[in-house]
């Protein structure tokens, strides 16, 4: 039945592509999480009235974030080719997609992180200060835990954007389900391969959304 | 114990300067509950934040136990803040932490070991009456319970001072009374100095020993609560006292109850402290041949004893009335003649 519907789909190819997509997504989500939170923290803390109030640093960070968010992802990959080559030693395969994926998604996530931190009750930060908390303590014991549900729903949205980025990266040779859909499906006019890849990607997106919603809900004690 | 000298805070905006706190000087003794009352915008919230430097003072000094808070560097200030507890109008608890973890937070900051934290938190939970709620999250608690967590958290590092910023303003009257009772019992048990910011006069009446009245950043009046209640000097203080018992200060309504007897006087009697317990009227009636018509009266308990006022109309022979008034005065009760009906 399935082989009738999808005559050109080879399952071993599908699994390899799925693995590559998951590899790119998971590693880039971790990278985005770290870089995005760092950038988001910098944006938040250097804002007027906050702990490291600094107009210049805030302006520079905001500009960098805005510029990278403005570049379309497919162009960003091309721009980053020399950097990727230097960093990863190759410009092909799932590994080579990682720098562009992280640099493309982190600024977007940084803005979500900044918004999440802004939602943290100022009174709670003041209370922590009144107890003699250091900035480090305020970051790790107040800002991060109090904004955790928003940070998680933010990374869920970003992860889903990253899955579609991996498909785009696939088209220029990164591998994964996007690559498979383009090379084996589109170019050979085997539309069933394109459909199969689509179904796989949709399932991956649903799984990520489900995990994100579940974590965010469980951690929210408000 | 706490000495505040010439404390000022100026906020500069693009077009103007606002003196939120203007040259405030106050001395507070160990173990005292000191109230600061003012309308919103009077600068009292800024004032209390200058004490632990959540706001940096523009001018002046704050000294607590011989330590000049205003001159400390940030590291030493953080250490010192551990000895200055603070509670807030909106409690400011971490929603992500349980009751137990919230109270343990200041202990974590102070670097107390895990086993000691556990012991101390259990003690505090007992003290504020939250036994059995250790593992609840703030969202599962009522306002009064949240403030109890706030109080326990503020007491965790055995502070010398407790700063209360409108600590009861978000609570209903009954819960307010419970929290105030808790603060008084803690004040007595731990000999803790408490500075209480509020806009509610009954809070001052119920728990404070001394009070400062703030208006437009300045302290317009300060003294023993009883004195300020009985004889408010400033306009602001008068309005606050009036707000507490509006009837008592409304003399206009009195005319309707005054008889048209030509030989009568309306007087206002002030009972302070133990005088309030005496049976003065029957005492007077036994001694003098006068009629006494009680117009209105009230009595309010404060931390330093009760005080009461009574409006009466005394009628009879003019000479006897004068003798009566002299007698009342000599017995220690203050008499104010409101109106000669003649």
From TrEMBL, chain A:
Chain ranges passing through the membrane: 22-44, 56-84, 150-173, 193-215
Give the primary localization class.
membrane
Has UniProt tagged this entry with the keyword Zinc?
Answer: no
Localisation per UniProt entry: Cell membrane
Q: Does the keyword Signal apply?
A: no
Stretches of the chain forming a coiled coil according to its record: none
Q: Which UniProt keywords apply?
A: Cell membrane, Membrane, Transmembrane, Transmembrane helix, Transport
Give the matching InterPro entries. AA_ABC_Transporter_Permease, MetI-like, MetI-like_sf
Topology class, membrane: Multi-pass membrane protein
What superkingdom does the record give?
Bacteria
Record-annotated ABC transmembrane type-1 domain positions: 18-212
Under the heading PROSITE patterns, the entry gives: ABC_TM1
UniProt record similarity statement: Belongs to the binding-protein-dependent transport system permease family.
Q: What is this protein called?
A: Methionine ABC transporter permease
In which organism is this protein found?
A: Piscibacillus salipiscarius
TrEMBL record, chain B:
Keyword Nucleotide-binding tagged = yes
In this chain the ABC transporter domain maps to 2-241
Return the InterPro entries for the record: AAA+_ATPase, ABC_transporter-like_ATP-bd, ABC_transporter-like_CS, ACT-like_dom_sf, MetN_ABC, MetN_ABC_transporter-like, NIL_domain, P-loop_NTPase
Q: Name one GO molecular function term.
A: ATP binding
Which domain of life does this protein belong to? Bacteria
Give the keywords, sorted: Amino-acid transport, ATP-binding, Cell membrane, Membrane, Nucleotide-binding, Translocase, Transport
Does the record carry Transport as a key word?
A: yes
Q: What is this protein called?
A: Methionine ABC transporter ATP-binding protein
């Amino acid at each position: 039945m399935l082989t009738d519907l999808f005559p050109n789909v080879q399952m071993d190819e599908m699994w390899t592509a799925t693995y590559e997509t998951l590899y790119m997504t998971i590693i880039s989500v971790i990278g985005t999480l770290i870089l995005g939170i760092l950038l988001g923290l910098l944006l938040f803390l250097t804002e007027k009235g906050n702990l490291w109030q600094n107009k210049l640093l805030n302006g520079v960070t905001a500009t960098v974030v805005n510029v990278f968010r403005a570049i379309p992802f497919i162009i960003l990959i091309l721009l980053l080719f020399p950097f990727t080559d230097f960093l990863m030693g190759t410009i092909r395969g799932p590994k080579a997609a990682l720098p562009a994926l992280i640099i493309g998604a982190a600024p977007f996530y940084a803005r979500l992180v900044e918004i999440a931190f802004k939602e943290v009750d100022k009174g709670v930060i003041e209370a922590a200060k009144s107890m003699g908390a250091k900035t480090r303590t305020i970051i790790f014991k107040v800002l991060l835990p109090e904004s955790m549900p928003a940070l998680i729903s933010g990374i869920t949205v970003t992860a889903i954007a990253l899955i579609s980025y991996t498909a785009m990266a696939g088209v220029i040779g990164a591998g994964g389900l996007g690559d498979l859909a383009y090379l084996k499906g589109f170019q050979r006019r085997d539309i069933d391969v394109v459909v199969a890849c689509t179904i796989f990607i949709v399932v991956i997106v649903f799984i990520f959304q489900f995990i994100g919603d579940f974590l965010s809900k469980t951690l929210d004690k408000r | 114990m706490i000495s505040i000298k010439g404390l000022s805070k100026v906020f500069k905006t693009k077009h103007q300067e606002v003196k939120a706190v203007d040259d405030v000087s106050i001395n507070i003794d160990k173990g005292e509950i000191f109230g600061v009352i003012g309308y919103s915008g009077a600068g009292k919230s800024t004032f209390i934040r200058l004490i632990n430097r959540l706001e940096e003072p523009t001018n002046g000094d704050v000294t607590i136990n011989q330590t000049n808070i205003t001159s400390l560097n940030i590291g030493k200030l953080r250490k010192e803040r551990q000895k200055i507890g603070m509670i807030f109008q909106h409690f400011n608890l971490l929603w992500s932490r349980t009751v137990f973890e919230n109270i343990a937070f200041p202990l974590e900051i102070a670097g107390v070991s895990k086993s000691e934290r556990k012991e101390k938190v259990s003690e505090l939970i007992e003290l504020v009456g939250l036994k059995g709620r250790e593992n609840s999250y703030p969202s599962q608690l009522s306002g009064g319970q949240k403030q109890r967590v706030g109080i326990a958290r503020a007491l965790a590092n055995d502070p010398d001072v407790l700063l209360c910023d409108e600590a009861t303003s978000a609570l209903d009257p009954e819960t307010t009374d419970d929290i105030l009772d808790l603060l008084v019992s803690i004040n007595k048990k731990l000999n803790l100095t408490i500075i209480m910011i509020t806009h509610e006069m009954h809070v001052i009446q119920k728990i404070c020993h001394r009070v400062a009245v703030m208006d437009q950043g300045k302290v317009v009046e300060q003294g023993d609560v009883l004195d300020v209640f009985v004889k408010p000097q400033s306009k602001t203080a008068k309005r606050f006292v009036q707000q507490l018992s509006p009837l008592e200060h409304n003399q206009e309504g009195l005319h309707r109850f005054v008889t048209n007897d030509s030989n009568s006087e309306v007087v206002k009697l002030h009972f302070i402290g133990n005088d309030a317990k005496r049976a003065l009227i029957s005492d007077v009636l036994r001694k003098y041949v006068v009629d006494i018509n009680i117009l209105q009266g009230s009595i309010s308990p404060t931390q330093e004893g009760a005080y009461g006022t009574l409006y009466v109309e005394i009628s009879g022979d003019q000479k006897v009335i004068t003798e009566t008034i002299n007698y009342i005065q000599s017995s220690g009760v203050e008499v104010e003649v409101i109106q000669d009906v003649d």
